[in-house]
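ok trying again, last paste got cut off:
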Amino acid sequence: MTRAFSGTYRGTSTDERREQRRRRLLEAALDIVGTQGLAALTVRGVCEQARVGPRFFYESFPDLDALAGALLDEVQQAALEQAQLTMTQTPGEPEDKIRAGVAALIIAMTDDPRRANIAFAQAYGSEALMRRRFAGMRKVAETIIEQTRMLLDIPEGQDTALTALAQLITGGAAELILVWLDGGLKVERPVLIEIVADYVVAMVDRLPGTAAKLR
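nice, full thing came through this time. structure:
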């Protein structure tokens, strides 16, 4: 009697093998884009580094833009989740939590130079990546709004001010980090973190005054 094929090979299911191939492609793309730039990313090159056949590349991604976009999403999401977790676990006053979250986010984004390059520099070379970068920044802004509401007693009617605040923090911090990575701000990372944290805390403190102007 012939047994039906179960989809399991050497203890690994078809879905698991597909996910493993996708993971290897993402890791290979991280190394290539993070060290050589987006222009160096090719289907052949990433497949060779990931030890994945070209036909399996298209099983996971429709094209190189999709691969690079998924990589950027992963980098941004991992950093955001680390910041959220750190804020939740940090005791003390709201300012303590804010400073801890800022530090966690910047460290997560810059600890690996490849991830920093992808998140802050390489996105400017691709329209598709810029859209993903903006989407990621909106997620950060939404998290700032959510965390601010949780940490502080925000009166009703300050939605516009809070949204403006979140966008200013997100855009300003991102551009400052980019300048720092490019060598335009010659300070050590702990100083950068303190500068950004001071900026965030100051912006939050100004929230009531900004809200009053926008009424």
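cool. The first helix runs from residue 14 to 36. Strands lie at 8-9, 12-13.
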